[in-house]
Every structure is written in C-alpha cells, then in structure tokens.
Batch of 2 targets.
Target 1
Amino acid sequence: MKLCRYDDNKIGVVRDGGVHDVSSIVQSLPKLSYPFPLGDQLIAHLDRLRADIERIADGAKPTPIKNVRFLSPVANPTKIIGTPVNYEDHAVEARADPVISLAHAEHGKQRKIEEAGLFLKASSSLIGPSEGVVIRFPDRRTDHEAELGLVIGRQVSNISEQEAMSVVAGYAIALDMVVRGTEDRSFRKSCDTFSVLGPWLVTADELGDPGSLQFTLTVNGEPRQNANTRNMIVGIARQIAWASSVYTLYPGDIIMTGTPAGVGPVRPGDTMSLTFDRIGSMDVAVRGP
Ligand code: MN
C-alpha cells in the first residue's frame, strides 16, 4: 500500500496515479489524553487498521496525483536519524572537497562511519515535497542529499540486526538538506524545511527488498545523483540495530540512510526532482528566505 498525507492534512491511499481519500480512518485511532504517547499514532496503528484503510479506499473516488499537494507521509516523528557518509563514492568526493568535509574530519582526517556515529535532525525540519525547501543562509552553500528514507513502525530498543527489518513500516524518498560549514551537523541540517519526505510511504510488504533500489536526483533537469542502495556501506538492517542500541525508536521515526556522490548546491528558484525505483518520484522547489 502507498499511504500519503496531502492537502489540508487528508490521509490517502495512492493507486494507479490516483489518491483515494481515507481520512475517516482517524476516527478509529485511540482517544488519547495527556501525556500523549510518543510517536506517530497513525503509523503506530497501521497494521491493525490496514484492512479498514484498504476498504475505505475501495469506495473512494480517486483524485489524480497531479491535483494534490503532498505533505510528509509521517506527521509526528520523535526524531529524524541521519547516517553519515554511507556510500564510498560520496566519501571520496567529500575527501576531495574541503567545503563538504569540514564536519566529517577530525584533526584533518576523515572518520569512518562507525567512528562518526549517527546524527539527529530536528523533527521540526520535516516537510513534504509540496512545501518546498527554504534557503536559510543565502550567502552560504546549501546542498541536496538524496537518500532512501525508512519509517519505523513500532517502539523498539536494542533490536538485533537479524530482527531489524521486522520493525520497518515502510519507505519513502528523503532529502537531507544541509548548509555547509563548521557548525555541528544538528545545527546545519535542522533548519525548517531541511528534511523532506515523500511523496508517500510505500509499506515494507509492498516494496520488498530495499537493498537494490536505483535512484536519481536532478536539479532543473541537470543530473546530479544517480546511485543504487546496494552500494551502502552500512546496510539498512545494521543501521536500525545500531540506532536502536542508542535510542528507543518510536512509530514514525525516520532514518535517512545516507547519500551517494553528486551532492551539490541549490539556489532559490531551482527545482529538485527525485525518482526512486518502486517508490515513485517527486519535485521539490527551492525558495528564498
Ligand atoms: Mn545525509
């Protein structure tokens, strides 16, 4: 199933280029009171509600996807986890470009991913493709990073690599935007609009093996990134196990699994176009401050 959030916080199922409104499913979510549980409640209950969602979609008249504005398919992640330098070709380009490698290096030497650790992006930076990225520091270099985004389906900590794939709710296209510079990653990657997820969530059962997805990013039609998830240094199951050994993962938490070579700057007026095998494609506009 392809699940989306769109327009004025509607919930939809995407089938054959049309969005079926299933917003009434929120009436089946538990009535909650303070202190509300952490995590995204729709994602938390997705397995239980799946059959009902499909049934509502069957009876809904589809709207063509070109006529809707896609929001992030996850409304309330507790955190967005980033995996740094997870493709060897990006590690090579980062070593060659002092502007990229400023934050990767320690005493002038690039660290391996295990030494660098994971990082966090503020959940307030999350948007969907229709909202567009806003340049925060116009006089500095802001880069795109196309990545596979994965969404956690249930609360878990210390899960083994062998069991890790069982906690994935699904996958989406992710953009990890970053201002280059010397500040901490959490500062430079957490500006409002700097985490894009979309255009919809493809459930794990529908996507199948996420370890062989070809993906591309262009800017104004010019090819920038073209890679395959099989070339990750640390695979998806190990990223989940690693993250869960440090943080409790909650429903809706997002892991941005790293970017390949070809990162580069964007400016107001640009359009980034991303395409992923078995997920889909999305355009993201870049706007001035
Ligand atoms: Mn990244």
Note: The longest helix spans residues 46-58.
Target 2
Amino acid sequence: MAKKVLVTGGLGYIGSHTVIELMNQGYEPLIIDNLSNSEVSVLDRIEKITGKRPEFQQIEMRDKEQLQEVFWSNNNQIVGVIHFAAVLLVGESVEQPLHYYFNNLTSTINLLECMNEFDVKPIVFSSSCTVYGNPDQLPVSENAPIKAAVSPYGNTKKVCEDILKDASVAHPIKVVSLRYFNPIGAHKSALLGEFQSGPPHHLVPFITETATGKRAKLNIFGDDWNTADGTCVRDYIHVSDVAEAHINAMEYAIKQDDNSFNVFNIGSGNGYSVLEMVKSFEKTTGKQVPYQIVARRPGDVEAVYADNTKAIKELNFKTKRGIDEMLKSAWDWEQALAKQ
Ligand code: UD1
C-alpha cells in the first residue's frame, strides 16, 4: 500500500526538498500549500528531479473546513503529517505580530483537530533553534532552557511546540519536533532552491547575490562579538540533509507509543563564523565577495551550534554534505536563477 504523507507547506524551501526525499524513499507525498510564500512551478521542478508529479492541493489551513475536506477525501490513507506551513520572516513578524500568531497557531490547531478527528497520529513539526535564544552552553542540547523569544516569529515556534506537547498529553498523537539550525544550499540538480521575493533575509543568499554583482557589498553585522574572529557563529546545514532527517523523523514517530512528544536538534554540530562562511565561499567558487563590517543586527545571538548526538543516536540522522558542498550548491542555484 502506498505510504501517503500529508506535507503542509510542501512547496516551500525545506518542504519541497523534503517532498523529493519522501518520493526517493517510496512515500507518496500529498502537498498542501496556500502559495503565500511559494510558487506552484515548484511542482514542475520536483517532477523534473523525481520523474513524478506529486499530488498538490491549494489549501488555506486557517480555514478548518478546507483542511477537513483534505482529510475526508484521503480517509484512512494518510500515515503521517509533516507540518512546515508557517509565515517565517523575523522582521515582518515584529511589524505584523497578530498575522504571525493567527496564521501559525491557527494552522497548527486546525491540523491537530483534523488529525484527532480522522485518527492520524504521527506528526513531524518544523521548529527552530531560535527557541534556545543565546544559549548558555555550546554546543546546545535539547535539554537547554528555552529562552524568551526575540521576535513574534520565534515565539510562534515556541508556542506551537507547547501546543503540540499539551495536545500529546490529551490526545493519542505522536509528535516529533525538529529544531533546525541554519538550513542553506539547494538541490544538487540546481533545479530547486530557495526562492526570494525581494531582498534576501539570510546570510547565504546575500553572499551569492554579492558574488554575482547584484549587490556591491555584503554587510557583516558586527565584528566585535566574543568569538574567534569577532563575527557571529552559526550551525549551517545542507537543506537536503535537513530534508532527509524528516523521513527518519516520520519513521521514528510512527514507531512511538501514542501520547508521545520528542524533540531533536537538526544541525551539523559545527559552528562557522560569518567570515569563515565568506572565505569558504570564495575558496569553493573562486568568486570574490566584497564585504564591510556594519553595526550589529538587533536580535542576533552571538553563537549557536547543535549538539546533534540525540538525533544521530535515536533518528539515525547523518549529515552527508559538508560546508563546501552547501556553498557550491547555493552558488549553482543562484546562477540557475539568474538564467531564468
Ligand atoms: C534567522 C532568524 C531565526 C530563524 C532563522 C531561519 C534572526 C535574528 N534570526 O537566523 O529566528 O529561525 O533565520 O529562518 O533573524 N548576517 C550578516 N549579514 C547579512 C545577513 C546575515 O552578517 O547580510 C549574519 C547574521 O548576523 C548571523 C548570520 O549571518 O550571524 C546568519 O544570519 P541569518 O542567515 O539571517 O540567520 P540567523 O540570524 O541565524
């Protein structure tokens, strides 16, 4: 029997890479997405890569009836849910907190209600290392204290984890929450990557756009942090490694007892500074990235990288792609985008 997995937000950056890994491993993804921050052409790209077009429905998850219809028409077929759908821009969340809370919380609550109604138990949730804030100890493990979120976006991740945890006590669901560190890069085919509408929001697209000449200089936010070279340290991980972790997480969730809640860090375990990222990019691609040091960015944390031993041990999680491959794939994607 086909193993159908409902993937919310499955046309987004991490969602679409996960759909490919699901298909590679014999699952049948059913994508729902409201296209608020994704493009329907991603389906063509997935088809080119896998040779098969995944099932897709344009659904607004904030409308419970639309979601119920999806569960109803796939009754007894969905083996689990991977929940990516969320609005996710830190700056925008400060300007539109109600939109962020309403969207991210309502979608999650509606999804859990539908899962209860239709007896679907396993759910893998997209969380973030943002819940650790500026950690007291590095590498940061899942047992580290949760810090007050800097942004409404970050808080939606924390509150959604709380909702999932409380729901798992009262209802027979099986929750796995994955706390991603910094996913970067693109599919090795350069057919799929992160689409930007407007200026980028993360470091690596800023680096690649500077390398193309689209931007004169990369702004580095502070070189007076308490790190080896003074710039912030993060745990960058290839998006395809993150995607693969979801299949392990889904299989783990399926095997758990009802009423379970488990959290895993999904990071490489290595910390790289902003300057190290620039240097690695230059070495790997042979392209120069002019930069200037500017003021610290409000809300940035100094250093964060994962203790990923729990995921390695319990999820059989592996990172297969190193920093050079991550940056090379990001560069190939940037060049592919430029040709469109
Ligand atoms: C950001 C979010 C985080 C979210 C994550 C994934 C903030 C404060 N945090 O993480 O909540 O979970 O994305 O969506 O926005 N940098 C530069 N110059 C640039 C861009 C970035 O120096 O032009 C530096 C930043 O200061 C940081 C590092 O690069 O040290 C990585 O930044 P970024 O890619 O934005 O990710 P995070 O801030 O780690």
Note: The two ends are 39 Å apart (CA to CA).
